[in-house]
Amino acid sequence: MLYRHVPKNGDKLSILGYGCMRFPTRMNAINKELAQRQLYLAIDSGVNYLDTAAPYHNGKSEPFLGKVLSKNGYRDKVKLATKLPHWSTGSKAEMDEALERQLEKLQTDWIDYYLIHNLNGFSWKTAKERGVIEFLDGALSSGKIINAGFSYHGGAEDFAGVVDDYDWTFCQIQYNFLDTQNQAGTKGLKYAASKNMAVIIMEPLRGGNLAKKPPPEVQKIWDTAAQKRPPVEWALRWIWNHPEVTVVLSGMNDDDHIRENLRIASEAEPNSLSEKELGLVADVTETFQKVLKVGCTGCQYCMPCPAGVNIPGCFEHYNSRHGFKDKQARFFYLGMLGGALSEKPGLASQCVNCGECVKKCPQNLPIPELLVEVKDNMEGFTTKPLLWIIKRVMKVKGKKGGKEGDEVAS
Question: Dihedral sign, CA of 103, 262, 289, 22?
Answer without folding.
Answer: negative
